[in-house]
Each structure stands twice: as C-alpha cells, then as structure tokens.
Design a protein that fits this description.
It is built from 10 helices and 7 strands. The protein is of the alpha/beta class and 240 residues long. Strand 6, helix 10 and strand 7 form a beta-alpha-beta unit. Helix 5 crosses helix 7 and helix 8 packs parallel to helix 10.
Length: 240
C-alpha cells in the first residue's frame, strides 16, 4: 500500500530530463534515444563501437588499439562520450550529482559482465589528495563501489595513489598525456596483499586516449595483479 501511495505522489522521473519515466532511475523515450549506449560489436580493448554485426568481440580492435599497445587485457565502456553520455559524466564529476552513480554503475556493470572472470577486485582510478579535498569525492570510486556491488565483487577504493598532482589532461595530445602521467601512479603498499595475484577490474568515468588507464595498469602489474581489465562510463572518440 505505502509504495503505491508514494509512487502516486512521486512518480518515476527520467534520470536525464526529469520528465515521467516507466521506472525509477530510468530514461524517457526521448532521452533513451539521445543516450549513446555501446552495444553490438565493440573494441575488445577499449569498448568503443565498431561497424558491422556479430555476436562476439573477442580479438576485435579499433584503429587506436591496433596502433597503440594497451597494457591491460580487455576493456569496455557503457556509452560514448557525447550527448547524454557526456552530460552524465560531467554532471557526476562537476555537478555534484552523486545520485547518478548508482544507475550509471548499473549500466557499466552490464557492459563489464563479458570481461569479468573469477573473483576480480574492483579498483578505481585515484585522485590526488589535493583534488579530492577540493571535489570532496572521487567519482571513479563512487562508480567502482557500485559496480562491485552489482557484480558481487570486492572493491578496494584506495588500492592506488597519485604520487604527485598532475595538470589537467584536457587539450593535451596523446603523447603529452602519456608523458605527463609517467610514474605518477603507484600501488598503495597497505593494500597490495588484497589484490596481488588476483584479476582487477579498473574503473574510471571517461576514457580518452587511455593514458590514465595505462599508468594505473602498469602500477597494478608492478604490484602483482595477475590480469587487469578496464571499465569506463564513457568512451571518448576522436571527435569528442
């Protein structure tokens, strides 16, 4: 009785625009069309969409991943970084919309299921302590905790640390991003025993060139992680 009464007073609304929706934390029809979910064929390393049809992504790589060696094993993303994909990522990161973390992580968990093997540890990309102080939360950690819950995996939110504060990567070239992040991320010595010898699902909000994921993956491998896969909320393309 009470749930029906509450629903009558507060009907489900669209996560993107606030208009009526069929269920809580869902999307209305118009916003669903404007949300670029990555389904069908995707790159097995970064999760970006690929042309064509098929049932398996094993071994299929986009042009970027054919050209640039990825230190991780496999990767996926829930959506492209455009339209509502970009809007959700920016609202979570800069708009204090932490309420978005749950439904966004549910979409990410769906994208990640094909690459999850065994009892993997879910680890977020870290923020430097100065940025964490200013922002008050790490959006990657919020997503990682909820992805882990959806997949029934353990999350280690402080497994990685930023050794130094790096400048914003926006506007930098691929080479500049990789150079900026070199040796900037390391494993937390107090947490190594929780993931050494195990597979890791590394989580971030947006993947652009893959420089951040690469720096984190190298730190995890150096600390003894057996297999690293990456998962992003949104995958940015060449024109994003």
């Amino acid at each position: 009785m009470w749930p029906d009464a509450i629903r009558a007073i507060y009907p489900p609304s669209c996560l993107a625009c606030g208009e009526p929706a069929e269920r809580d934390y869902g999307l209305c029809g118009a916003c669903w069309i404007r949300t670029p979910f990555l389904t069908g064929l995707v790159c097995d390393a970064c999760g970006c969409g690929l042309p064509g049809e098929g049932r398996t992504n094993d071994g299929l790589l986009c042009d970027d991943c054919l050209r640039v060696a990825r230190p991780w094993h496999k990767g996926r993303a829930a959506m492209s970084y455009r339209d509502n994909g970009r809007r959700f990522a920016l609202q979570l990161k800069h708009g204090d919309r932490t309420d978005l973390a749950g439904p966004l992580a549910a979409w990410m968990a769906t994208a990640a299921r094909p690459i999850v093997e065994g009892p993997m540890r879910v680890i977020p990309v870290p923020l430097h302590r100065s940025r964490l102080f200013l922002r008050r939360f790490n959006q990657a950690a919020l997503l990682a905790q909820r992805v882990a819950a959806a997949l029934g995996l353990d999350c280690i939110p402080d497994a990685l640390v930023r050794r130094r504060r790096t400048p914003s990567l926006g506007g930098l070239s691929r080479e500049e991003r990789f150079r900026t992040l070199q040796d900037s991320i390391a494993a937390n010595p107090a947490r190594i025993d929780r993931f050494a010898g195990n597979g890791v699902l590394l989580v971030d909000d947006v993947m652009t060139t893959g420089a951040t994921f690469a720096a984190c993956t190298e730190a995890l491998h150096a600390a003894g992680a057996s297999r690293v896969c990456v998962l992003a909320l949104a995958r940015a393309g060449k024109d994003d």
